[in-house]
Amino acid sequence: MCHILPISERLELEPITVPLAELLMTKLQIVKLNRKDMLDVYALLLAHEMGDHDRDTINVQRVAQVVSADWGLFHTIDLNLTGLRERSNEFGLSTTDLATIAARLGALAVALESHPKSLRWSLRAKVGERMPWHEEPEEVGIQS
Fold it and tell me: Average pLDDT, stretch 69-88?
């Protein structure tokens, strides 16, 4: 993982998987999204509404709350939202699907930008990319 996500307190919310907000963040926290990761994000966005609660909804307020405490995570997700918007037409999706993806990416971007940030977040934002903001994950090899 490129960033640490605080998910332990929310593991019990869903019976089979992590909540959709955390599932989406596990993809969006990747600094170098590959094609499979992008398709996973598009699939999540197409299959689930955005809202301010969990269940079968991507809890946008939860994502905004988490990234408002961590500028590096915010920055990575912000970069990924831009890349996902710019590259969405490369995957053979219908016009309707592209519109849904664009609307949901836009709603997420607005929520992240408008959520109040801490003083620590603001100070770290001033440093920006002059200092590393993420971890480089190690490649995991397959054991024979």
Answer: 94
